[in-house]
Amino acid sequence: MEWLNVTAESGLWGLLAASFLSATVLPGGSEALLWGFLKLHPGEYGPALALATLGNTAGGMTSWWCGYALPRWRKLENLPHKDKLERWGSPALLLAWTPVVGDALCLAAGWLRLHWLPCCLFMALGKFARYWLVAQSAFPN
């Protein structure tokens, strides 16, 4: 079990990287990593929560940027649910944390040219709420 002896500093860097990668189309389990890290280092609650949220939001914004960089092809104008995202706008990115759908939302928001700042803020808020719930579960009463 010596391999579990992760320093807080290296664990935080790993958590940041894993949460970033988990927000892209790459599969990942940053929630489990956050939970395990907090079990090993409960005193790092604030930094771990902040870095997981930061990394996952940065990954989501990378997907947003990829969507923004895509050309506006005519055939993509009829994508399913595109009209809903246009109607709801950036607040729909509160759901950017959801598996599979969240990646598509981030990509579509960029492709629709939704302004980056509200997208980033709503994305961060949704991702923070998810990580906060995971972090709370690491410390049952």
User: Over the alpha carbons, how many angstroms does the gyration radius reach?
Assistant: 16 Å
Helix content: 55-70%
Q: Describe the global form.
A: elongated
Binned strand content? under 5%
Low-confidence stretches: none
Give the strand tally.
0
In DSSP terms, counting alpha (H) and pi (I) runs of 4 or more, how many helices?
6
Specify the biggest β-sheet. none
Number of domains: 1
> Mean pLDDT, rounded to whole units?
85
Oligomeric state of this protein:
single chain
Structural class: mainly alpha
Measure the end-to-end span: 26 Å
SSE pattern, N- to C-terminal: HHHHHH
Description:
This protein is mainly alpha-helical and 141 residues long. It contains six helices and no strands. It has one domain. α1 (8-22) runs parallel beside α3 (45-69), α2 runs antiparallel to α3 (45-69) and α2 packs across α6. It is elongated. The model has no long low-confidence stretch (mean pLDDT 85).
Write a compact overview of the structure shown.
The chain has one domain (2-137).
What is the topological layout?
Elements: H1 8-22, H2 30-40, H3 45-69, H4 82-88, H5 101-111, H6 116-137
